[in-house]
Amino acid sequence: MKKLLFIAMIACVPLFLTGCAKDDQISQLQKQNQDLQAQLAKQQSNDFDLQSKCSQQAKVFLDYFEGGKSAENISYENHFNQKLNKCFVLISQFQNTAPNKIEFLFDAAEKKEYAESDSSGYCSLLIGGAKCNSEAEFNGFVSSYMSDSSTVPSVPDLF
Question: Tens of pLDDT along 135-145?
Fold first, then answer.
C-alpha cells in the first residue's frame, strides 16, 4: 500500500509542476495583454491628436485658400495620412457656371497641390504633371491620400 501511495505521489508531482507552469504562463499572457492594451490606448490617443492637429491645419489652409474671405461655395474634408505623415485637404468649390464643381487635393502644411479635377471632365495629377482620364481615376488617386491604405502611389507608379 505504501508503495502504491509513493508511486501515486511521484506521478502527481509532474502534474502539479505543469499546473504551476501553466499558471505562470497565464499570468505572463495576462500581463502581455495588459501591456498591449495600454500601447493601443496610447496609439489611439496619438492618432486622435494627429487628426485633431490636421483638422486645425486644414482650417488654416482653407483660410489661405480663400484669401481670408469666407466663401459659402466651398466645402472641404481633411485627413491625416499616417503612412506619409502628412495632412491632406480635399477642397470642393461649387459655381453657378460651368464647370459647376472643381476639386483640389492639397498637402495642408506645405500648401502643395497634388491633384485637381472639374465637372467638365478635366483632371490633372500634379505630381510629375501626369494627367488622369476620368473622374474615377481622380477619385482613386485622391482616396489613396485621404485614407490610410497601403496603396499610396509614388511618383514612379504614376507613369
Answer: 888 998 999 99
